[in-house]
Amino acid sequence: MLKWYLTTGGGKNQTKSSGYCFKTFESLKYFSNQVSNFLTPRREEELFRGAVLIEFAVCMPVLIILLFYVHDLMKIKRLYSQTEFVGQQMANILQNIAKTRTITINDIKYSAALSYLSIYPGNTMFTIKSGREWHLFAHQPRVYIYYVKGGADQKASTVWGLWIRSGTAVEPKKWHSETTQDVDFPGSIVSLKKNVAPSSIYSLLKMEGNYSKIILEAQMRWNSSEQLDANGKLVKSARKVFGCYLVNPKDNAKAAYFSSIVVFSPNRGFTENVPT
Which single residue of 105, 174, 263, 266 has CA 20 to 30 Å from 146? Predict the structure, then answer.
């Protein structure tokens, strides 16, 4: 009897335990099947596509902004390169003239008109209507020229300064000019100072002994309160004037943009007298 009970009892307990195990196994199998169904290749592909779309929606505006920003930086660099080229061309023209005779104000005006053609083709460097600051590009060329003389103790003095800017395309108003020997021009990055360190006149200027130097500054002039565009309207943003999308170009001095400096030792046609 005892042996039978143990066998029978053991059999019942075994059957019940096997039932629990079987149900647990079936539950795990069902759960694994559900997970497997959820993570089918198709489902994973859908999730991947969704993630890609989200990343695209987030990153695309950033990419566009970066492209516009790069465009603006390249545009600004190109404008600086253009004014630098103008300054170098003017210096070459004036130096060639100064080999044979004294430089005049007309020499400076004509050399500027020729050199600035790379920026302002045809008559676009001049005002559209007489007596008004009305330009096709809403900005115009301006040039500053300084005669600097070295002195004792590595000092230097600005003997004279001169600026010209375009007027109308009709003589004799094609160019306006002004000279000074004492007061700084507010639109220039060069200072008129006497008996000072060369760097006080221009930050990169170096002088040797009693020799002289000519500083030529080429720039584009735009004043938001004065100059009109091709439609006769004021443009309030340097970004719009100079064709940028995001970056707003900064002026180097009052209404002066993309100023480039050329420094050279003058030929004998440059003297301590202001060109007339």
Answer: 174
Name the nearest CA neighbour of 237 among 110, 140, 245: 245
Q: How many CB atoms lie within 10 A of CB 65?
A: 12
pLDDT in tens, 30-55: 545 554 554 455 555 665 566 666 76
Tell me how far CA of residue 131 lies from CA of 9, 173, 207, 231, 272, in angstroms: 119, 10, 41, 16, 33
β-pair type (140-150, 256-264): unpaired
Could you tell me which of 133, 128, 117 has the C-alpha nearest to residue 223? 133
Q: Copy the structure tokens of residue 149.
A: 């003389």
Angle 84-147-83 (CA atoms, 0-180°, nearest 5)?
10
Nearest alpha-carbon partner for 113 in 173, 63, 175: 175
41-98 helix and 105-115 helix, angle to the nearest 10 degrees:
150
- For residue 222 the two structure tokens come to 């735009």
3-class secondary structure, 142: strand
Q: Would you say the pTM of this structure is higher than 0.90? A: no
Cα–Cα distance between 39 and 34 in angstroms, integer? 9
Name the region of 211 (left: φ>0; alpha: ψ -120 to 50; beta: rest). beta
For 235, phi then psi, to 5°, come to -110, 125
142 neighbors 158 (Cβ within 8 angstroms): no
On whether the CB atoms of residues 162 and 190 are closer than 8 A, the answer is: no
- Give the side-chain half-sphere CA count within 13 A for 76: 19
| CA-based max dimension of the chain | 142
